[in-house]
Specification:
By secondary structure, the protein is an all-alpha fold. The chain has 13 helices and four strands. It is globular, with a radius of gyration of 20 Å. Pathway: Porphyrin-containing compound metabolism; chlorophyll biosynthesis.
C-alpha cells in the first residue's frame, strides 16, 4: 500500500484513537431551519469574513535552520504530533468544504460559514504540512483523501462532536502557548509561536457550532440529548487522554506533564460545554481521573500486546480481559452522575 508520507515514512496505523474523516446526511443538513438564531449566525459570519489570521500563517526566518540537533526520539514524537494534527485539520477542511458546496442554495448563510471554516482548516493543514517538510517528509493529502475510510455521523452528532473538538482544540493550543511563553527554553520548534492566534480560529469555529446547536433546541432540551451530550463529552475527553498519555514523552520534551495538561484542558472544555450542553461531566469526582488512568494503562497494555505478540489467536486471547476492563471503566465514567449545566455555568462566569 502506498504511504501517505513520502520518503519512506509509514503513516500511523489507523485505530479508534486516530483522527477520522467524516461524512453526514447532506439532505437533512439542507433542511435545517436556523431562523431561531439567525442574528447570532450573522455575527459569526462577520467574524469569519474579517479573516483575522489572513497574514498570520507566514513562516519567518526562524524556520530556516536544520532540525537535525533534535533528539531522535523527540523528533519522531514531534513528527507524529505534526502528522496527527495535519490529518485532523485536513479532515475538517474536507467536511466543511463539502457542506459548503451542498448547502450553497438551500442555506447560503450556513454554506458561507462552512466555506470560510474550510479556508481556515486548509490554512492550518498546509502550515503543518510545511512543518513536516522541515524534516524532509511530506504528508500526501491527496492520497489521504482517497485512502481513508469515512465515518458517517448524523448532523446532530456532527454538531456535538465538532463543537467539542473545536473547543478542546482551543484549550489545547492556548495551554501549550501559555506554558511555552513562560518557559521558552522548551519551545523546540517555532510553530508553537503561532498557537495564540491559531487557537482563536478553533474558538470561532466552536462558536459557530454552538450557534447551530442553539438553533436546534431538540438537540439540547430532552432526555435523549442529555444522554448524547454525556456520551460525546466522555468520548472526546477519553480519546484525548488515552492518546496523550500514550505520548507522554512528547509533552515531556516541551516541559509539560501529559496528565496534568490533559486534566486542565478537560476541565476548561467541560466548563465551555456547560454553556451550551444541558449537562457537564463531574470531572472533579475523585474517581473520574482514576478511571481514565486505568483506561490509559489498559490501552498501553493493548499496544504492547500488538507490538510483542505475533500469534493472532494468542494476541486476541490476551486482549479480551483488557477490552473488558476498558469497557467497564468507560461505562462507569458514563454512568457517573453528571452536573446540571446551569449550576456549573453559574460558578465559572
Amino acid at each position: 500500500m502506498q504511504n501517505t508520507i513520502n520518503n519512506n515514512k509509514t503513516p500511523a496505523k489507523e485505530t479508534l484513537l486516530t483522527p477520522r474523516f467524516y461524512t453526514t446526511d447532506f439532505e437533512e443538513m439542507a433542511k435545517l431551519d436556523i431562523s431561531l438564531n439567525l442574528y447570532e449566525f450573522e455575527s459569526v459570519l462577520q467574524e469569519f469574513r474579517a479573516d483575522y489570521n489572513k497574514q498570520h500563517f507566514i513562516r519567518d526566518e526562524e524556520f530556516e535552520q536544520t532540525w537535525e540537533n533534535l533528539d531522535k526520539k523527540t523528533k519522531a514524537l514531534f513528527i507524529e504530533f505534526l502528522e496527527r494534527s495535519c490529518t485532523a485539520e485536513f479532515s475538517g477542511f474536507l467536511l466543511y468544504k463539502e457542506l459548503s458546496r451542498k448547502l450553497q442554495y438551500s442555506n447560503p448563510v450556513i454554506a458561507e460559514c462552512f466555506l470560510l471554516m474550510s479556508r481556515d482548516e486548509a490554512r492550518h493543514a498546509g502550515f503543518l504540512n510545511k512543518a513536516i517538510g522541515d524534516f524532509n517528509l511530506s504528508l500526501d493529502l491527496g492520497f489521504l483523501t482517497k485512502s481513508r475510510k469515512y465515518t458517517f455521523f448524523s448532523p446532530k452528532f456532527i454538531f456535538y462532536a465538532t463543537y467539542l473538538s473545536e473547543k478542546i482544540g482551543y484549550w489545547r493550543y492556548i495551554t501549550i502557548y501559555r506554558h511555552l511563553e513562560k518557559h521558552p527554553q522548551h519551545r523546540i520548534y517555532p510553530i508553537f509561536k503561532f498557537f495564540e492566534n491559531w487557537c482563536q480560529d478553533e474558538n470561532r469555529h466552536g462558536d459557530f457550532f454552538a450557534a447551530l446547536l442553539k438553533s436546534q433546541p431538540q438537540f439540547l432540551n430532552n432526555l435523549q440529548s442529555r444522554l448524547w451530550c454525556r456520551f460525546f463529552l466522555l468520548s472526546v475527553f477519553a480519546t484525548m487522554y488515552l492518546n496523550d498519555l500514550q505520548r507522554s514523552d512528547f509533552y515531556k520534551s516541551i516541559g509539560l506533564d501529559a496528565r496534568q495538561y490533559d486534566m486542565q484542558v478537560i476541565r476548561k472544555t467541560n466548563e465551555n460545554a456547560s454553556r451550551i450542553f444541558p449537562v457537564a461531566l463531574n470531572v472533579d469526582h475523585p474517581l473520574f481521573f482514576k478511571y481514565l488512568d486505568e483506561c490509559a494503562t489498559q490501552n498501553k497494555n493493548l499496544i504492547e500486546i500488538d507490538n510483542q505478540e505475533h500469534n493472532i489467536i494468542t494476541k486476541y486471547i490476551k486482549k479480551i480481559p483488557l477490552y473488558l476492563g476498558l469497557s467497564k471503566n468507560l461505562l462507569q465514567l458514563y454512568l457517573m452522575a453528571p452536573i446540571n449545566s446551569s449550576k456549573l455555568s453559574s460558578t465559572v462566569r
